[in-house]
Specification:
41 helices; single chain; 1235 residues; 5-stranded mixed sheet
Length: 1235
């Protein structure tokens, strides 16, 4: 939709008659170039009513003319007729062309007459040379020398164009594009600088023959009646390949995105399996663009695959085709339009193509390292190029595309941002920064552009918080419609719009006709309004609709705002002459008047949005007021003025703005600037009164989110909360925070203890900043973080909730790092030795447990083993030390009950040891000494706190769902202190005091420590520390079980058989992974039995070990295949050498073994009853020879009699085989039943 508004008005219009030109162009600042058939070019000053300034000659008749700002040269395409009426075309460059004006003006002044057209070349001779091959002579390098530089084009040139910033020249020959690079050289003799053009060996072959070409930087656009191709030429990064195929049977492998490459199906399946995708959506760029709302009804296809560019080399020496690639941006091809009932096709036609590069200030220049290579077609200001606008038209519509220079050209974004429906068939277009002028059959049409809208989004992060911008989808405005008849040309200079009309004013005159019988044309010189004038025109029209049509008012102000914004954003170019060579310099249009007008437009938009009632609109007032740099005090005054002159008294937008501004105050300097006096009242008090009256629900949010506001208006806020009798949980916690601000901890504690657990948790989670305080030092660069007073109260009153909250902040929200939180804790604990310090240790323990539970729930962390980062390693070490210290405290308390005389000293040791273990590494000697001094003063009370700490660890409940609880080895429950020592019972006939001390709290702590060690994720350094600790603390609770965990399997087996043999079977089940380990266990058990039997007083113990050996053998016989069981059994050592059997009688078990792993009857009968055959197990041989087990008593001969267990193994295998047969038969029968 197009909104029609009469806003754009030309400041001045001048009409003049000129000779019919063969080609036209403009040169900055406001000069018109007219190429005449008399082989000369007239230069006219548009600022002086298009009067003739001077003229200079050309070699041949000019068919096309282009002016370039960089180098200040004129490029022409000239035609020459031979005697045989054969046409020859040349591409030529004219440099120092404006220096002719000085000589002509001096001659005209001295003679008092003007020069005729035929005399224009008689003043200054034209000096010619060939680009890249001939250097100018010393005389040619002089200042006032008109130079003609002929480009050595090998093919016939059809079209010519140039980049205004880089100065490169683009020439079209049939379907081939050639580039001549602009360069500045120094003369070898005179040392004077001169411009030159170097032919690049880059040859671009198109798929069609264009009628228009355009170029800016490395962007090239080509157009003919049916096709448009817009692309970039860029370097291929080193080592990058587009598509690679290894062989015919393998799929393609891709390293970069291309629109021609097929999909990587295997990669899609891999991602689906990895991320558990239910649906995979494949975004194809061509389909996305075809289905976009803008292209839904367009007359062309958006991605024509047949439209390609082939890179070739025009030089046999240099081959750049392998170093550069073409990135397609637009590949448009018109579709034939068939009208139902018609006998022929009606086709649309592409008419115009304009490229507009958008340069913005950019101080970040690319670093020129040793490997840096300047892009081929880029200028030295290429880093300032943000986007390129491409405007193309058909006969009826115009399409505006914008491509950001630093984004992926293969992205799926539709770059068409606006469509312009013209009122009549269009023939020519020109683009200002903010206005599109289109020449149609009926006249001149002017539309607002959407370039600034998209450019703002490319440059700034439009988040509607700090920066806002009108929507790109807003309707374009037709701001000017003027009738002109017979116009042939449309040209745009810096300040003027030029129309050249044929004198034949017949309505049937063809605008595109070039065979006119008229010799004189009419020149319309229209002075354009500048940005400020156009802004004021928009503003004047908007004020009419401010209250009658608010939407129209907003649209007009938005258009005026964007006119100023894009004017301030874009760079302009001014010419600079240095050493006889003209170059360009960027210039920013940022005068004070323009900036002030821009700020005023932001204020007007803020005023409009702040009075809106819907949320989306009134939230936009915040960024616009920020962009206008207006203070909240001025906003209050402006809103009051609007309410006085209108019937709109809405306050929701104002309250949102004030709330957001107050929440964004972070420093005291910002607060001092904001909280200025407003009459007799303080500004912050005025704002709080507004909230108390209109939006009291957000007062608590302001208090909880802004510590500066709490400091400035503590008493006022407490008065408001108490006056309104607020009972909401959020208001209660806000009041508690205010009490803490006034050092009233008792009132705050009462409020926090009265709040429900869930409500308090949710409020603190959304306002977690309340838990910390940040302090800055003038000497230190970094800010220090510590717990706030609210956290101190939570540590003493709700430690469980605080631990859960902190764990969520680390693992889920990732708002606080583990390293930072550990540092805060380790600074907090030594300075708090009362109940807060003990509860703080509890909070740290629960926090670390929850952290590691979440940490190891991620698959990538489970397989990391001990490759921890620094904070994770420290956290794991602290958690282990916490468990050890709690167990040690309990151990010392048990000793206190037996030795009350040393009560005071023991308690002192307990507390010091507990907290010193936690902070041993990070704190240091000085802090430790200070801590010891503080402990000496609080011995009595601290012991009670430590006892409470042990009791408070039972947070997991009876389910014992603690960290790694599921992987804790069951054999640990068969060891003290969870189970009696059977060997000790046997030795003492049950008279020994039970070693099982039922203490639920300490048992849970021990189980947590055991489970953590069973995970085998504890670093080796911590394991070594624990072994040293266990050696020094023999009576430590759980010492035996903990050592069995941390010791290697082989050493642990020996240790358990010596200390606690009752769990040997379960230990093997839990920890053995190799058959050799079971063999070693049997050998050690037999050796133990042999040793015990020699002692008469330990016969009962010996019999107990024999029963354990039988239990081990029975377990192995019932769980393992016969072949494996035989390999595990130790060899029998015969004391009588005559009993040795020949090895040749040994049966090959592998041949007689059935497929299910059991021995057949024949092979079983062949087994030697004494030695079960010669076993090849090296581990067994080594163990047997090492221990030299000899049985010399017939009563214990049965310990190496394995026949009963071999029979059990055979029977088990047979039973399993029958079971499998039954299951298989049942399954087969089930499938045959016809149910």
């Amino acid at each position: 939709m197009v909104r029609v508004l009469s806003v754009h008005h030309f400041s001045k219009q001048h009409i003049q008659t000129v000779e019919q030109p063969t080609a036209t162009a403009v040169a900055p600042p406001n000069r018109l170039l007219l190429a005449l058939s008399s082989h000369c070019i007239e230069v006219r000053d548009l600022a002086s009513d298009a009067d003739l300034l001077f003229s200079f000659p050309t070699v041949d008749e000019v068919k096309q003319i282009v002016h370039c700002v960089n180098g200040d040269y004129i490029a022409t395409l000239e035609r020459k007729h031979s005697r045989q009426n054969h046409e020859t075309f040349y591409a030529r460059i004219y440099a120092n062309w404006d220096s002719v004006a000085t000589l002509q003006q001096s001659k005209m002044t001295s003679s008092g007459v003007s020069l005729g057209v035929s005399e224009c070349g008689m003043v200054q001779p034209m000096r010619a040379r060939i680009a890249g091959r001939v250097t100018p002579t010393t005389n040619q390098s002089e200042v006032c020398s008109l130079e003609m530089i002929e480009l050595p084009v090998k093919r016939r040139p059809d079209l010519i164009n140039c980049c205004q910033v880089s100065g490169n020249v683009l020439i079209l020959s049939s379907k081939y594009l050639m580039v001549y690079k602009f360069c500045v050289r120094t003369h070898d003799i005179s040392k004077l600088r001169f411009i030159d053009f170097e032919e690049l060996s880059l040859l671009l072959e198109l798929s069609f023959r264009p009628t228009q070409i355009s170029m800016c930087e490395n962007y090239i656009a080509c157009l003919n009646d049916t096709c448009v191709h817009f692309f970039t030429v860029s370097q291929i990064p080193h080592g990058e390949f587009i598509v690679t195929k290894k062989n015919q049977n393998e799929d393609y492998t891709f390293y970069s995105k291309t629109d021609e490459a097929p999909l990587n199906y295997k990669q899609m399946l891999k991602e689906e399996e990895m991320y558990n995708y239910n649906i995979i959506t494949v975004n194809l760029p061509s389909i996305i663009k075809e289905n976009s709302a803008i292209h839904k009804h367009c007359p062309f296809t958006c991605c024509d695959a047949g439209m390609t560019v082939n890179i070739k080399s025009s030089s046999p020496i240099e081959n750049w085709s392998q170093s550069y690639q073409v990135n397609n941006l637009l590949q448009l091809k018109l579709k034939p339009m068939v009208i139902e009932g018609a006998h022929r096709q009606i086709t649309e036609e592409f008419k115009c193509l304009v490229l507009k590069p958008l340069y913005i200030p950019n101080t970040h220049k690319p670093k020129k390292s040793d490997s840096y290579r300047k892009p081929l077609l880029k200028s030295e200001y290429g880093h300032c190029l943000n986007s390129v606008a491409c405007m193309l038209t058909t006969q009826q519509e115009g399409y505006l595309y914008i491509f950001c220079d630093n984004t992926d050209p293969m992205s799926h974004v539709d770059n068409c941002i606006a469509v312009y429906p013209f009122t009549a068939p269009v023939y020519k277009i020109v683009l200002e920064d903010y206005i599109l002028h289109a020449l149609t059959e009926t006249g001149l049409e002017s539309y607002t552009l959407r370039i600034g809208h998209q450019l703002t989004r490319n440059v700034h992060k439009v988040n509607n918080i700090n920066v806002a911008c009108p929507s790109v989808k807003d309707s374009v405005c037709l701001v000017g419609l003027r009738p002109f008849i017979g116009v042939e040309q449309l040209l745009l200079s810096d300040q003027y719009l030029v129309l050249l009309a044929n004198s034949d004013t017949s309505p049937t005159h063809s605008v595109s006709s070039t065979n006119s019988c008229s010799l004189n044309w009419t020149l319309y010189n229209l002075e354009l309004p500048n940005a400020l004038i156009l802004y004021n025109d928009f503003l004047s029209l908007a004020n009419i609709h401010q209250f009658t049509s608010p939407q129209t008012y907003c649209h007009l102000i938005s258009e005026a705002h964007m006119v100023l914004k894009i004017t301030l954003m874009l760079l302009k170019w001014r010419s600079k002459c240095e050493n006889a060579v003209n170059s360009i310099l960027p210039q920013k249009n940022d005068n004070d008047e323009l900036i002030e007008a821009y700020k005023n437009s932001c204020r007007l938009l803020g005023d409009y949005y702040v009075m809106c009632k819907d949320e989306y609109n009134y939230t936009l007032s915040l960024p616009y007021y920020k962009m206008s740099q207006i203070t909240p005090l001025e906003v209050l005054k402006r809103v009051q003025e609007i309410q006085n002159i209108s019937e709109n008294n809405s306050m929701i937008g104002l309250l949102y703005y004030l709330k957001t501004v107050l929440l964004q105050i972070k420093t005291w300097s910002e607060a001092d600037v904001l909280f200025t006096l407003l009459g007799e009242q303080n500004f912050v008090e005025t704002v709080l009164d507004l909230f108390s009256k209109y939006d009291s629900d957000n007062l608590s949010t302001l208090v909880l989110k802004n510590n500066v506001l709490r400091e400035y208006a503590t008493d006022k806020l407490i008065h408001i909360f108490l006056q309104n009798n607020l009972k909401d949980n959020k208001d209660l916690i806000a009041l508690a925070v205010l009490y803490l601000q006034r050092y009233n901890q008792s009132e705050a504690l009462v409020i926090i203890e009265s709040m429900p657990y869930d409500a308090l948790y949710e409020i603190l989670l959304s306002n977690w900043e309340l838990l910390f305080e940040t302090t800055t030092s003038s000497k230190a660069k970094d800010c220090g973080t510590s717990f706030s007073e609210l956290t101190d109260i939570l540590i003493s009153s709700k430690p469980q909730m605080l631990a859960q909250l902190l764990a969520y902040l680390i693992t889920d929200l990732r708002a606080v790092s583990l390293e930072k939180l550990l540092k805060v804790f380790l600074e907090f604990l030594p300075s708090h030795i009362s109940n807060e310090g003990t509860n703080g240790s509890l909070v740290l323990q629960i926090l670390l447990e929850k952290f590691f539970k979440n940490y190891y729930s991620l698959p990538e962390n489970v397989y990391r083993k001990t490759n921890y980062d620094g904070p994770t390693f420290e956290a794991l070490k602290i958690l282990v030390r916490t468990y050890l210290s709690q167990l040690q405290i309990w151990q010392m308390n048990m000793k206190q009950q037996k030795c009350k005389s040393n009560d005071i000293d023991t308690k002192q040791y307990d507390v010091k040891n507990y907290l010193s273990v936690l902070t041993a590494d990070p704190v240091g000697d000085a802090a430790k000494a200070e801590t010891d001094e503080m402990f000496d003063k609080n011995i009595e009370s601290e012991t009670e706190n430590c006892d409470n700490l042990i009791k408070n660890t039972t947070v997991d409940g009876p389910n014992e769902d603690y960290l790694f609880s599921k992987i804790r080895w069951p054999y640990l429950d068969m060891m003290p202190p969870f189970c009696e020592d059977d060997v000790a019972k046997i030795c003492t006939n049950g008279s020994q005091e039970s070693c099982v001390k039922n203490n639920t709290e300490t048992d849970l702590v021990l189980k947590k420590l055991q489970a953590l060690l069973c995970s085998q994720l504890v670093p080796k350094q911590v394991i070594n520390e624990m072994l040293t600790f266990f050696t020094m603390n023999v009576d430590f609770k759980g010492n035996m079980s903990l050592q069995s965990i941390v010791l290697p399997v082989k050493d642990g087996t020996v240790y358990l058989l010596d200390k606690c043999p009752q769990c040997a079977v379960q230990y093997g089940k839990d920890r053995f992974t190799k058959d050799e380990e079971w063999t070693n266990l049997l050998v050690l058990m037999q050796l133990k039995i042999s040793t015990l039997y020699t002692k008469a007083n330990l016969k009962r113990v010996c019999q107990y070990h024999i029963s354990l050996l039988r239990e081990i053998l029975r377990y192995l016989a019932t769980t393992m295949p016969l072949q494996r069981f035989l390999l595990i059994l130790p060899q029998k050592v015969n004391t009588d050498s005559s009993e040795n059997k020949d090895d040749n009688n040994t049966t090959n078990d592998s041949q007689d073994t059935s497929r299910d792993g059991t021995l057949t009857n024949e092979s079983a009968n062949q087994i030697d009853g004494d030695g079960f055959g010669k076993n090849n197990n090296s581990m067994t041989n080594q163990s047997q020879s090492q221990y030299n087990i000899v049985w010399d008593d017939e009563d214990f001969y049965g310990i190496d009699n394995y026949e009963p267990y071999i029979l059990i193994c055979k029977q088990t295998a047979h039973a399993n085989h029958i079971k499998r047969l039954i299951v298989a038969t049942g399954q087969k029968l089930l499938t045959t039943l016809n149910l």
